[in-house]
C-alpha cells in the first residue's frame, strides 16, 4: 500500500521542481529588462500562475507598462495594450461590426475584434475609463468572454488582465467599482527605486547597449503550471486560518479587531479567501512544498486584500490605510491549534 503513496509523493516533488524552474526562468528574463521591483515582478508572476488578474498602482515612469510588455515577450503570449481615456466606448475594446468592400464591388458587415480578444491585456490607466467601458472589461475578466450584440466570443487561455492606475492624479478619472476591484487577485504597489537602482537604470537606458529578452515559455506551459498550482493541498488548519483572516476584515465579526469595527465599511468577500488560497499555493510551490502553510497565507495577505477593504468616513478622514487594517487583522487573528 505504500508504493502508490510514494509514487504520488515523487510526482508531487517533480512537479514542484518543474514549477520552480519555470517560474525562475521567466523571472530571470524579466529582471534582465527591469531594474529592481523584485516584489512586484514576483507578484505579477504569482498572479499569472494562479490564474488571476493584477492591478498595478504607481506614479508614472516607474516601469509598470514595461513590466507587462516584457512579460508578454518572455511567455510568448498574444499581447494587446489599451490606453484608456474618458471618451473610450465598449466597442473600442470589445470590437464592432464594420462595413468592408467585397471583391464584386459590394459591401458586407464583418466583425472586427477589439484588443480585449487577446491572452495578456494591459489596461493602462484603467481608472480613466467610464463605468460603461469598465463594465465591458469586467465581463472579460470574470467570464473570459466578451458579448457584442448576439455574438459571444470565448477568449483564449491563458487569459490575464494587468491594469495600471495612477494613485495621485484624480482629474478625469472614474474610481473602479467594488465589483471590479474584487476581480483582481492582487493589487501591487510600485515604489520609487533605490539610489543604486537609479544608477542601474541610467546605465541600461542612456547608453549604447540594447537589452533583449528571450521567449522562454508559452501559453501551454502557463496552463500546465496553473494545473500544478490547483493540485497543491491545503491542510484544514491553513484553510481555517485563511477564512478567519477574511472574517477579520468584516465589521462585527468575532475575528475583527477594534480597528476594523471603527474604520471599515465593507470587508473582503469570499473571493478574497479564494485569492488567499490560490496565491498561497504558488508560494508553497516556490518553497519546494506541495502543501500550503500558514506562513504562505500571511505572505500574500496584503496584495490579496488591500483592494477588497472599503474604509468608512472615519477611516478616510483619519487617513487609515487598508494596509494598516491588514496589519491589525494579522496581529489579532490567532493561528489555529496544530499549525506550525
Task: Give the topology, please.
Blueprint: H1 2-33, H2 38-50, E1 53-57, H3 64-75, E2 79-83, H4 90-94, E3 95-101, E4 107-113, E5 120-124, H5 131-143, E6 145-148, E7 151-154, E8 160-165, H6 178-181, E9 184-189, H7 195-205, H8 219-231, H9 236-248, H10 258-263, E10 264-266, H11 270-286, H12 294-299, H13 301-305, E11 310-311, H14 313-317, H15 322-332
Parallel strand pairs: 1-8, 1-9, 2-5, 5-8
Antiparallel strand pairs: 3-4, 6-7, 10-11
Helix pairs in contact: 1-2, 1-3, 2-11, 9-11
Description:
By secondary structure, the chain is an alpha/beta fold. It has helices at 2-33, 38-50, 64-75, 90-94, 131-143, 178-181, 195-205, 219-231, 236-248, 258-263, 270-286, 294-299, 301-305, 313-317, 322-332; strands spanning 53-57, 79-83, 95-101, 107-113, 120-124, 145-148, 151-154, 160-165, 184-189, 264-266, 310-311. It contains 15 helices and eleven strands. It has a five-stranded parallel sheet with strand order 2-5-8-1-9. A hairpin with a 5-residue loop joins strand 3 (95-101) and strand 4 (107-113). Helix 9 crosses helix 11.
Amino acid at each position: 500500500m505504500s508504493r502508490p503513496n510514494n509514487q504520488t509523493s515523487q510526482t508531487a516533488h517533480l512537479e514542484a521542481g518543474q514549477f520552480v524552474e519555470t517560474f525562475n526562468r521567466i523571472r530571470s528574463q524579466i529582471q534582465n529588462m527591469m531594474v529592481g521591483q523584485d516584489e512586484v515582478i514576483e507578484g505579477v508572476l504569482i498572479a499569472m500562475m494562479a490564474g488571476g488578474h493584477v492591478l498595478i498602482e504607481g506614479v508614472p515612469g516607474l516601469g509598470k507598462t514595461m513590466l507587462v510588455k516584457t512579460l508578454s515577450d518572455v511567455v510568448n503570449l498574444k499581447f494587446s495594450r489599451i490606453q484608456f481615456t474618458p471618451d473610450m466606448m465598449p466597442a473600442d475594446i470589445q470590437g464592432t461590426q464594420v462595413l468592408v468592400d467585397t471583391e464584386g464591388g459590394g459591401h458586407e458587415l464583418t466583425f472586427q475584434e477589439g484588443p480585449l480578444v487577446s491572452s495578456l491585456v494591459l489596461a493602462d490607466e484603467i481608472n480613466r475609463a467610464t463605468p460603461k467601458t469598465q463594465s465591458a472589461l469586467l465581463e472579460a475578466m470574470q467570464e473570459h468572454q466578451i458579448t457584442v450584440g448576439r455574438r459571444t466570443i470565448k477568449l483564449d487561455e491563458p487569459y490575464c488582465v494587468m491594469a495600471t492606475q495612477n494613485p495621485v492624479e484624480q482629474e478625469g478619472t472614474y474610481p473602479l467599482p467594488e465589483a471590479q476591484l474584487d476581480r483582481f487577485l492582487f493589487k501591487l504597489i510600485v515604489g520609487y527605486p533605490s539610489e543604486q537602482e537609479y544608477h542601474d537604470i541610467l546605465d541600461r537606458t542612456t547608453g549604447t547597449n540594447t537589452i533583449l529578452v528571450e521567449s522562454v515559455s508559452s501559453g501551454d506551459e502557463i496552463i500546465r503550471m496553473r494545473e500544478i498550482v490547483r493540485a497543491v493541498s491545503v491542510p484544514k488548519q491553513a484553510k481555517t486560518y485563511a477564512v478567519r483572516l477574511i472574517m477579520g476584515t468584516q465589521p462585527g465579526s468575532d475575528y475583527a479587531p477594534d480597528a476594523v469595527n471603527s474604520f471599515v465599511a465593507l470587508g473582503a468577500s469570499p473571493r478574497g479567501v479564494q485569492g488567499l488560497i490560490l496565491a498561497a499555493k504558488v508560494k508553497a510551490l516556490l518553497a519546494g512544498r506541495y502543501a500550503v502553510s500558514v506562513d504562505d497565507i500571511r505572505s500574500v495577505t496584503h496584495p490579496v486584500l488591500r483592494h477588497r477593504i472599503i474604509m468608512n468616513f472615519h477611516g478616510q478622514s483619519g487617513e487609515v490605510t487598508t494596509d494598516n487594517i491588514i496589519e491589525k487583522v494579522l496581529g489579532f487573528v490567532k493561528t489555529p491549534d496544530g499549525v506550525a
